[in-house]
Design the sequence.
């Protein structure tokens, strides 16, 4: 008999764990701009892109793949001149030099503007392109690839309902107990699709170690190991490869990563620490698959309580989830998984998100180390008691509390972060 819950979990994973090229906030802008330009059907004379505050925050300082540049203007411009909307979060995969030059000219000529939208949506992009009397409009909302409106000359060509994370999970409530059972008991052949995350994310990590990407956090750790400053243990290995992948991705490497919940960094963080422990502990492929399923689905579960964008760093939740996968590699059970979550959240739950940028690799490295410490404590039977701070003895209440902290409690923090960041710019973020 088919387990309906397991089938739903598989669908959630295949929807939330997908390839993405570049940071997903500028990519969402490129996607909306590409769809608008395709709908217009000709080269636009002008373009205006309006974005939500959270998307502005997360996209203004990160590299855009294939451009060697940062910022939302260039993301919108190359979306118009070289994006392919059918590629979704890989919209800029086929960008070439001619299209990049055309995008730069669009900006240089003052024909493209990125503005802050007056919207309550946390994730929102509205791209309007014009030529003569013709115009086209595309709106993305609530999810990085969720196109909810396409218009040409004011006529609606496509509409879709706004879907929230809660809506997506309605009818399929998750619990850590059910996630653990799925990861450890479902047929292996139904789970092996997650190995694609290993393939993509290890390639980016290798490139991050081979070249001088971003802040070179991962490469610096490798040098420290070589110089005898750090030991070449599993912990250093896990932090090194995860940070190196983030280094490369944050500077805009033209290679896709397997994302989680709309974030490439979260996908890297939910994958690579688990891979590191599996490699160094000589785990079987089945152990790796099941640990990755546990990590990625736990990340989706925790992130669903937070929302796609917030003032709380999503990598901290993905690292927490990776700790769950590490516990499985080490032979732990559900009790140790729950203890790992409590330990990690009790340590780094307040880590803020002040936009996507090269220094995210440092946050990733800190979060991964915290998660590994928490997992190792859990394997020794050590767990922060539920009476402490925002935690709870009930693991689901604990996860909800952290979600409430990030989505409700830190709402004003989010506004302050955005103001601090935008006050450093006299205009919309430059190319």
Sequence:
């Amino acid at each position: 008999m088919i387990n309906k819950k397991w089938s739903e979990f598989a669908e959630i994973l295949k929807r939330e764990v997908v390839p993405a090229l570049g940071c997903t906030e500028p990519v969402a802008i490129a996607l909306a701009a590409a769809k608008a330009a395709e709908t217009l059907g000709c080269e636009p004379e002008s373009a205006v892109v309006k974005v939500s505050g959270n998307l502005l925050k997360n996209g203004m300082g990160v590299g855009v793949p294939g451009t060697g540049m940062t910022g939302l203007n260039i993301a919108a411009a190359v979306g118009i001149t070289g994006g392919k909307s059918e590629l979704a979060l890989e919209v800029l995969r086929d960008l070439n030099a001619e299209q990049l030059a055309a995008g730069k000219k669009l900006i240089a000529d003052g024909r493209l503007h990125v503005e802050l939208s007056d919207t309550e949506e946390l994730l929102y992009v509205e791209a309007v392109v014009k030529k003569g009397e013709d115009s086209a409009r595309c709106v993305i909302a609530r999810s990085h690839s969720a196109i909810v409106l396409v218009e040409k000359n004011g006529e609606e060509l496509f509409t879709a309902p706004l879907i929230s994370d809660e809506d997506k999970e309605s009818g399929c409530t998750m619990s850590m107990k059910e996630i653990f059972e799925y990861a450890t008991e479902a047929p292996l052949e139904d789970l092996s699709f997650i190995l694609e995350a290993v393939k993509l994310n290890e390639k980016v990590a290798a490139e991050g170690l081979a070249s001088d990407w971003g802040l070179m956090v991962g490469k610096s750790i490798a040098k420290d190991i070589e110089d005898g400053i750090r030991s070449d243990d599993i912990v250093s290995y896990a932090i090194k490869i995860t940070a190196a992948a983030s280094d490369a991705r944050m500077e805009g490497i033209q290679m896709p990563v397997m994302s989680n919940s709309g974030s490439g960094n979260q996908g890297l963080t939910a994958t690579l620490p688990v891979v590191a422990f599996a490699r160094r502990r000589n785990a079987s492929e089945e152990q790796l698959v099941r640990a990755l399923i546990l990590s990625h689905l736990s990340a989706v579960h925790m992130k669903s309580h937070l929302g796609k964008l917030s003032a709380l760093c999503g990598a901290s939740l993905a690292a927490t989830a990776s700790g769950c996968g590490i516990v499985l590699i080490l032979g732990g059970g559900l009790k140790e998984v729950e203890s790992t979550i409590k330990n990690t959240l009790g340590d780094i739950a307040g880590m803020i998100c002040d936009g996507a940028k090269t220094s995210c690799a440092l946050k990733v490295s800190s979060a991964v180390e915290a998660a590994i410490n928490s997992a190792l404590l859990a394997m020794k039977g050590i767990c922060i008691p539920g009476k402490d701070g925002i935690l709870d003895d009930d693991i689901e209440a604990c996860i909800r509390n952290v979600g409430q902290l990030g989505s409700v409690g830190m709402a004003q923090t989010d506004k302050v972060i955005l103001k601090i960041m935008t006050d450093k710019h006299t205009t919309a973020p430059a190319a």
User: Anything to note?
Assistant: Confidence is low (pLDDT under 50) at residues 167-171, 426-431.
